[in-house]
Hints:
Blueprint: H1 3-29, H2 37-42, E1 52-54, H3 69-80, H4 84-91, H5 94-104, H6 127-130, H7 134-138, E2 143-147, H8 149-153, H9 178-182, E3 202-204, E4 228-230, E5 241-243, E6 249-251, H10 273-276, E7 278-282, H11 291-303, E8 307-308, E9 332-336, H12 344-354, H13 358-370, E10 382-387, E11 392-394, H14 403-418, E12 422-428, E13 431-432, H15 440-443, E14 454-460, H16 467-470, E15 479-481, E16 487-489, H17 496-515, H18 520-538, H19 583-596, H20 601-608, H21 617-632, H22 645-671
Antiparallel strand pairs: 1-7, 2-3, 2-10, 4-11, 5-6, 5-8, 7-9, 12-13, 12-14, 15-16
Helix pairs in contact: 1-11, 4-5, 11-12, 17-18, 17-19, 19-20, 19-22, 20-21, 21-22
This protein binds a DNA duplex through helix 21.
Amino acid sequence: MNKTSADLNCIELLATVAGQVLQAKSLREENAETQSASASETKNPSGRVSSCQVNLPSVRSHQVFVPGKSLFEDVSKLENRQDSNNMQETFGKDEEKVAVSNFLKGTELPTNYMCLQNAMNELVPDPSEGNCNREEESTSEVNILTQDSSAHTSLPKSSNPGHLGSLTHFNSLDESNSFSGRNLFKGGTCVTLLPDNIPQPLCFSSGKEAPTHVHKQSHSLCSEQPLETHLDFSQDLLRLQAKDDDDNFSDLVVPATTVPVGHLMPVIENTQLMQSQQIIKLHKEEASVTKGEMKGIVNDGVIGGDLHCLQHFSSQQPQGRKRRRTFKPSKVSIDTYKPSSLNPLDLDAKDTSVGSSPTTIEGSRRSRKRKSNEIHDCFPVKVNITSFRVPELSINLPETATVASLKRAVMEAAVNLLGGGLHVRVLHHGKKVHDENSTLIQMGIACKDRLDSLAFMLEPSGVSNTSMNIGESIFAYPKVKTQHGACYPVFTTGDDLEGSRRKTLNGLSSTDAETDASNNTEAQEKEDVVSNVGECAKLGQCAPCDSPTPATAALILHPHADVGQQTYVSFSGKRRTRRPFTVLEVEALVQAVELLGTGRWREVKQQVFSHARHRTYVDLKDKWKTLVHTARIAPHQRRGEPVPQELLDRVLQAHTYWALQLVKQQEDIGDI
DNA sequence: GTTAGGG
DNA sequence: CCCTAAC
């Protein structure tokens, strides 16, 4: 599991370690005392640096180019149409909404929305200068920045708390949807950019222009083609191999073809740089480290055996060269800084780095003691992957789709694309290095003055054309085309009972729709609550949506995707804005429960609240709970908008009824 | 992914 | 409304 996340982690660390390796020589000569805080922890008793410091790379996610115009137009409709309420719901604050508007117009979304968090904010260029520069974008492939020693020493844990990307986890953005289950980014681990304030980063590109601050190119949202999101993945990347549970290696090679994908990688929260730092100790003469080994080191250290960049370390050993140590897991250790906090990711990192081979660190420590005079074999290099790109993707969305739907679509596409794994490719002087058994010294890339000759690239692997796969899950639901051309899910409740219940609910909906048109908010609420019921009634009359041509790999989302829990996520990732239930909603809820019973909240959500995107079935359940409580307490003890006593009576009545039903059901089971 | 229940 | 255990 988590192959993808493993891949990403691997790549991240790969970049980091590779950079460290490259920098080893110079750093080794640096005063060990100037090592950042992490170094102190890696000093052996003699005070010498026995390991190199590796920052978990803050790999910046590739940019999402939301196409532009048409998307803008379409989503603009979302803003202006009735769903504006939902937009408000989604984004909560006004400024957030503004931000979304900007996004729709081609500006970077607020980072914390598209899973990009604050760390990116300052990197976001002026929208006016970043719009749609596809050419610029095209030059931004996987770039690995190698910090020089000055940068290295200037990165104490407190110096760049918000800049240097580090791994962290974000749970608030996990929408419990399909992609979250994939754990693409393993708890939010993501790619971020190197900050501008990193002293003279050495940028390694694919050998083209070697942009120094590639990340600056990567923020604009390009809008050129309607309803297309472009993720540009580099054509060449490092190769990685994924190892499954059975130790089978699967080569993950995939041409970076145009694939429908989305990008939406969360960006690292940079506030816990040191917590996420890891120490990688290379007890090896650096010059003989092969590129493949570099990858393996990273891999084993971080992924803990789940992913291997190397075929086998032993098989990578240069022939005719005596190796005192190989980079087998037992001989390469990665010490993770153990923060005082309990950052899940940190724990994760530690667990994954050492958990799978508990003897690794032990062996390493023993080795360190035994060969304390070999500490100079370690050379720290700092590398950050600043960006990588994903091939373009095309996502078609109904105009009624929410931004959240777009986000999911993009994420799902990205997951589908990246699910096959990533490849890491090493480039030397812009050329792909195929002989991974070559040592760094043989390649001449161990020399300090040639660091800029090395580049790493990431590319998606697995399938050359994942287009057809992208939307499969989304297409799983039967859909109908509404009069507006939008696709809606078909209710599949089949039995007559369900049908009659639905019929009743529809009746309620219609009645309500006719009785309350004075209050816009209320009307909107009503619309949200019952509109899908109306749609439901029309289902049988509607022709199915045309399935997208597989070749176009179009994604069609529909509101059904919002039915799930927590599809509405607070913009800030914090507590959602309180949205008290209206009387209308309460009435709809009561009637639904009367018909469906308690404990069927998902159905209630689907049938009555599916368009009320801010109401999850958990919300409905909670509301019912509070309704029951409210009905039981004295009227003067009640707070908030008064609920008609008639409704409260029905609440208690239904509550009692279904409780009895449950008891009877259990008794029946007991009798059997 | 849903449901149930405590906070 | 959040969180999480349990399923």
